[in-house]
């Protein structure tokens, strides 16, 4: 943070106006350049780092099934040691195809499946998985019922 940006921040706090308007006025009146470093830092976005039990996603992708099974809980470890079925491998193949067909900065297409018992593997991170037949009722919020708040206790039921 250079001396110009410190001056800008101090003036911004003293006058208490919108930063964008303030910077435009300051560049026109005084001739100071707009803070490029502030604009660049806004453009830089931080993405969530995925990790599972202390192992980063990059390292997880390098593991084979036996090493991955050691990290997982007992139920998933049992499934991986006994082997996945044909439909699970077909599902993974569709996920890989959707990820390959997507552009560099695009999200992959949603892959719908009936497989609710599929174990989430590291290569599935970043994909969107939908469910064909929803087996639960999605929550719909309506008006609150009687007894939801303290004020509704005193309303007669008629």
TrEMBL record:
Gene3D superfamilies documented for this protein: 30s Ribosomal Protein S19, Chain A
SUPFAM superfamilies in the record: Ribosomal protein S19
Any one GO molecular function term: structural constituent of ribosome
GO BP of this protein: ribosomal small subunit assembly; translation
Name assigned to this protein: 40S ribosomal protein S15
Keyword terms, alphabetized: Ribonucleoprotein, Ribosomal protein
Family note: Belongs to the universal ribosomal protein uS19 family.
InterPro entries named in the record: Ribosomal_uS19, Ribosomal_uS19_SF
Cellular component, GO, one term: cytosolic small ribosomal subunit
Keyword flag Ribonucleoprotein: yes
